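Pasting as-is:
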Amino acid sequence: MRILVTGAAGQLGHDLVAACRREGDDVVAADRATLDIGDRDQVAAVVGAAMPDVVVNCAAWTAVDACESDPERAQRVNGDAVAWLRQSCDHVGAHLVQISTDYVFDGTLDRPYVETDPTGPQSVYGRSKLAGEQAAGPDATIVRTSWVCGEAGGNMVKTVLRLSAERDSLSFVDDQRGCPTFTADLAPLVRRLAVERPSGVFHATNQGAVSWYEFVRDIVDAAGRDPGMVHPIATADLDPPRPAPRPANSVLDNAALRTAGIPLLRDYREPLAELVDRLLQVG
């Protein structure tokens, strides 16, 4: 398979490139320096030159709070760019896999979200990512994931390891729940979907739902530190408050994967322990 990966230097892109190369794929790894997906002409030129069988779009502007103050940039990078990728894929006969997010939901359900639940994003970021899903078209594979952590790029695991080494006490919200997802596990699944090319929406997360407070305790514990140093607070008590609203419930039920007979990813605690070990060794 000849596969073009956009956002190849990011958390998922980095591990997806590695997973594809392990399987012998011909990979075109396009990082931000190679391809600014917010530039329509660049999108057409890069896809046209690569002539891929599949394009996996891992590129996005994921600075959730920054998106609130620049909705035009968010829409261009997370929404319009996907329409340009769709057009370029159609031109060369490539399948499109679009990576999306739990933030397309409003977070008010009292159960995990399945793929067919109505969307209702509450933030600029969520609306721009939903626009990207819609721009990808009915034939594309949409992969919604959440709380992504990997060895490349910045994420909550790296932040907590740093803060827990510097401070005696940490406070994190206990009224936002989701599924931590690790790119070492997610990348091979995304590759499988790229190979099989199913159309429609798939929720893909590691198993296990927790609050940020609980997740941070698990990170601290995995690092061999005292999880008692982590204390719960309410989102309303954050000081300063976050500009972008977060869904209180962003737990994604991986129903479409189960229906398709595709094995679900492991409980998040297993890849968490592996990632913490690697980060502490290199740190």
